[in-house]
């Protein structure tokens, strides 16, 4: 069951266009009551619907120009321990559990190839990681986004 309804989606789309808009401004733009907008924004905070602001900061702007993906084969009995270790590595941007040939997909940011070598070695040294494979991102063809999904949902709920 979706946690967001058509009104939520309308507010989110408005925030895509004006991310710093206040509740009052959003209410005016959308023709909604201020209390409706404020209650939705408050619920999103409580339910952690919106991602933290740090997701919007590009590692490139921090001088970390190299983006890479490390897939790892992990001793399944140590999976939580491995994840806890990876959480302590600042250059690890995201870790996703996988099914298939690898167990974890680890996105990392590095300043250059030597830095990536260091980070990859640090990951491989985590107790419980048996093997890794590193791929360097050459070009981000489609950046992370949800707007097309929001627009699709808004369109399907309008019918």
Overall radius of gyration: 20 Å
The termini sit apart by 19 Å
Strand content: 15-25%
The average pLDDT is: 94
How many individual β-strands?
4
Query: In this structure, how is the largest beta sheet organized?
Result: 4 strands, antiparallel
Number of helices: 6
Low-pLDDT runs of 5+ residues are none
State the helical fraction: 40-55%
| General form | elongated
Q: Strand order of the main beta sheet, please?
A: 2-3-1-4
Write down the secondary-structure element order.
HHHEHEEHEH
Structural class: alpha+beta
Provide tags for this entry.
159 residues, elongated, single chain, 4 strands, alpha+beta
Explain what you see.
By secondary structure, this protein is an alpha+beta fold. It is built from six helices and four strands; from the N terminus they run H-H-H-E-H-E-E-H-E-H. It has a four-stranded antiparallel sheet with strand order 2-3-1-4. Helix 1 packs across helix 6 and helix 2 crosses helix 3 (34-47). It is elongated and about 55 Å long.
Structure described in brief:
Helices cover 42% and strands 19% of the residues. Helix 1 packs across helix 6 (147-158). The two termini are 19 Å apart.
Topology of this protein?
Blueprint: H1 6-17, H2 23-30, H3 34-47, E1 66-74, H4 79-87, E2 92-97, E3 104-110, H5 113-124, E4 129-136, H6 147-158
Antiparallel strand pairs: 1-3, 1-4, 2-3
Helix pairs in contact: 1-6, 2-3
